[in-house]
Specification:
- There is one protein chain.
- By secondary structure, the chain is an alpha+beta fold.
- The chain contains two helices and seven strands.
- It has helices at residues 7-25, 91-99; strands at residues 31-34, 44-51, 57-71, 77-78, 86-87, 104-110, 115-120.
- Strands 1-2-3-6-7 form a five-stranded mixed beta sheet. A two-stranded antiparallel ribbon has the order 4-5.
- The longest helix has 19 residues, at 7-25.
- The radius of gyration is 16 Å and the shape is globular.
């Protein structure tokens, strides 16, 4: 019997690849570190960089935690319009993100349009 790869896995990997490409092409460069093990609500982190006076890219030690969600069908999404949408999160996810010491950014990848959207978790909304 062969191994079957779930569509959700493939969709998720497409999102990670697209976000990684975005970070690599961003100016200034964003250092993306994907969680290799024990992903319980945070998929990775980005470290911000800056361009120095002599044109070098310098790591800043400023870290944002990333929760990446990829969708083909629009799951996680409500009230989508031309310029906005609502992200639907589970209560336990929101509680987890709010407890984090570092800022958490939700990144949603739409597979059909190959678009990434990001929003920082507002810890004052809970």
């Amino acid at each position: 019997m062969s191994k079957i790869i779930r569509e959700e896995y493939i969709t998720g990997e497409k999102g990670v690849a697209e976000f990684n490409t975005f970070c690599a092409n961003h100016s200034p460069f964003l250092i993306f570190r994907e969680e290799a093990k024990h992903d319980f609500g945070i998929d990775g982190e980005i470290e911000l960089t800056r361009i120095t006076d002599n044109g070098k890219t310098e790591a800043t030690a400023k870290i944002l935690k990333i929760q990446l969600k990829s969708t083909v069908t629009g799951s996680y999404i409500n009230n989508e319009s031309e310029d906005s949408f609502e992200f639907v999160a589970k209560t336990n996810d929101i509680e987890y993100w709010n407890k984090h010491d570092l800022p958490v950014v939700i990144v949603v990848f739409f597979v059909k349009t190959k678009e990434l959207y990001a929003k920082i978790v507002d810890k004052n909304l809970v």
